[in-house]
Amino acid sequence: MADELTPETPDEAEEPIKQRKNGLYPGVSDELAESMKSGWADTELTGLAPIPQAAETAARRAALSARFPGERLVVPAGKLKTRSNDTEYAFRASTEYAYLTGDQTQDGVLVLEPAGEGHEATIYLLPRSDRENGEFWLDGQGELWVGRRHSLTEAEQLLGIPAKDVRELAAALAEATGPVRAVRGHDAGIEAALTDKVTAERDEELRVFLSEARLVKDGFEVAELEKACAATARGFEDVVKVLDKAEATSERYIEGTFFLRARVEGNDVGYGTIAAAGPHACTLHWVRNDGAVRSGDLLLLDAGVETTELYTADVTRTLPINGRYTEIQRKIYDAVYEAQEAGIAAVKPGAAYRDFHDAAQRVLAEKLVEWGLVEGPVERVLELGLQRRWTLHGTGHMLGMDVHDCAAARTEAYVDTTLEPGMCLTVEPGLYFQADDLTVPEEYRGIGVRIEDDILVTEDGNRNLSDQLPRRSDEVEAWMAALKG
Fold this sequence. Notes:
Blueprint: H1 30-35, H2 54-67, E1 72-76, E2 82-84, E3 87-88, H3 95-101, E4 109-115, E5 118-125, H4 135-138, H5 143-146, H6 152-159, E6 163-165, H7 169-175, E7 180-182, H8 188-193, H9 200-213, H10 219-241, H11 243-248, H12 251-265, E8 268-269, E9 274-277, E10 298-303, E11 305-306, E12 315-320, H13 327-345, H14 355-370, H15 378-384, H16 388-391, E13 424-427, E14 430-433, E15 447-450, E16 453-458, E17 461-464, H17 473-483
């Protein structure tokens, strides 16, 4: 990484630009500063077409306006977060901000000001880097260091929202009167400016509304989820083709292979990839990915590509590393497949949200009783939750811009609701027999199996968005054989 002169963006535009403590240049001569002010071409972009989801984001803002008439609404994108010293994590805009604007730039803030019977929306952004004061080349977040920003005029054309300089916003909010609600947890400066104007209760109501607004996906969102699933399927194919290299190295090779696909076809992975080989498959969120990959073991790969518009897939397959399931692996895998089939069949409009979970858990409980691992009858097992020793987790969750989407929704609007067309959820039953579980025969120990797909509720049932990847054990083996040539 090159050694820029200053470690951070000034809090105020008029503050002097700071130099890095141990930079190699002692300062900037007047002659160099003057030289850097001029001789630059005009790069302003004109005639920009609106972003593809401009109509959808406008409709989302209109729904938000209708829900909170007469109140000022503040939704920040968020700030860069320090990874270590003067390096930052890659920026990812807050879900609420991106959902309402389609913008993903750091420091942005959407403000809806009450106006008449509705609101006037303004998006507050950092303008182009200032060349007159040297910010564009001296500041660590100047455009010479991190890339060109859109001008405020360009942003207005793209987003369909009037744009202003975000550096003026905190002062304006501090002087604002009337009721205010804000999405918290993303911008400490904005929260400080609003500290005497907001309440935790009002802000939570805003967060809950924006979470519930995403329960039913519009057409743009469905198309993005389809893209995410298609790219994810290609990522799984990539992994199968290099399993021999993973055996020579570690689970990290699998993680890195999938990450390449995510970065080439999307923004990133939607969550930390779980590349769990052998007994690691029994650890639900195994993301260390530093274990051995051995022929004869299973690989539980739980991974999803996040699109450039921030919609993620969430898919799991449990694959035999050498291409063939052993007898006990197939027995457990086929039980999970049967449970997933029952769960997917229960996804349809008008069904209770919990139905798919109950259907899958019943199948798994029946298998555990049949195998003699738990004493029946099945109704007793389900009533007492005894199957959970080996099934562990719920059978799915809502999916969208967050992998666990709509998480702040009220219980009655989420797990206690009925399914509607446009909802998208995962169906992901699993069986996990820990390596140290003395209640099961030794042959079961260390085997973990999960199968997960992304299911869209349709008018007449459901559609599996991730059906590009095989699920039945014999089809998985044939698919792997074909990919390995």
